[in-house]
Design brief:
single chain, Rossmann fold, 2 domains, 6-stranded parallel β-sheet, two-stranded antiparallel ribbon, 12 helices
Length: 226
């Protein structure tokens, strides 16, 4: 296992940095916001807490939550226009600095493609660098499930995405940054995991992550030291 100093060295020399989105790049949990918007907020928030704690499989939690919400295409679009995701302070500067250094930035999320692509646009991240879950709709716009073939629909899916990125782009050093259990378990294949507690602190992640931060300024400072 890498020491904290070694992890900082990996981060400074990374070819690619993968960010979780909900409660990391943005302040909210997208699925909880969608649930509130559709009138089933409390029930779904409780399911999210259990999923984040790692006590149920991600796919089981996602299926159950979406089964309660049953969002229509129109509701998802209205949520994005009426309540756009709020970027976490410091993320815009950090992504910009990584881009300046020639580092590839990816958004790897158990959230929904339409919401995550909206976030990517704000951060100048190409949509090809977004890996997230896809909602399915019938022709009339009613909810028709989600694409279960996406790697991010499963526990361990973020690790599968990182393995794919390493194989496709021959990255030597990939860093994963996130707040939850699904982010931590992506290392390995990620070479370094940085726990983020700026929006919400997950006890399990705070206790187990060797490198735990609460503000993205801490990572900006690391980059400036080189």
């Amino acid at each position: 296992m890498a020491s904290l100093l070694e992890m900082k060295e990996i981060f400074r020399n990374a070819d690619a940095v993968c960010f979780d989105v909900d409660s990391t790049v943005i302040k909210e949990e997208g699925i909880d916001e969608l649930a509130k918007f559709c009138g089933v907020g409390d029930a779904v928030a409780e399911m999210t807490r259990r999923a984040m704690g790692g006590t149920v499989t991600f796919k089981a939690a996602l299926t159950a939550r979406l089964g309660l919400i049953r969002p229509s295409y129109e509701q998802v679009q209205k949520l994005i226009s009426d309540n756009p995701p709020q970027l976490t302070p410091g993320i815009r500067e950090l992504v910009s600095r990584l881009h300046q250094r020639g580092v590839q930035v990816f958004l790897v999320s158990g959230g929904f493609q339409s919401i995550v692509e909206h976030v990517a646009l704000q951060l100048n991240i190409p949509t090809a660098n977004v890996f997230a879950n896809r909602l399915k709709f019938y022709f009339n716009g009613e909810y028709a499930g989600f694409d279960e073939t996406q790697p991010t629909a499963e526990s361990g899916g973020k690790g599968k995405v990182i393995t794919h990125l390493k194989e496709q782009f021959h990255f030597k050093k990939v860093v994963m940054i996130g707040d939850g259990a699904t982010d931590m378990e992506a290392c390995p294949p990620a070479d370094c995991f940085i726990g983020f507690g700026g929006n919400v602190i997950r006890k399990q992640v705070k206790e187990k992550a060797k490198w735990y931060i609460t503000h993205f300024d801490e990572l900006l400072k690391e980059l400036e030291e080189r």
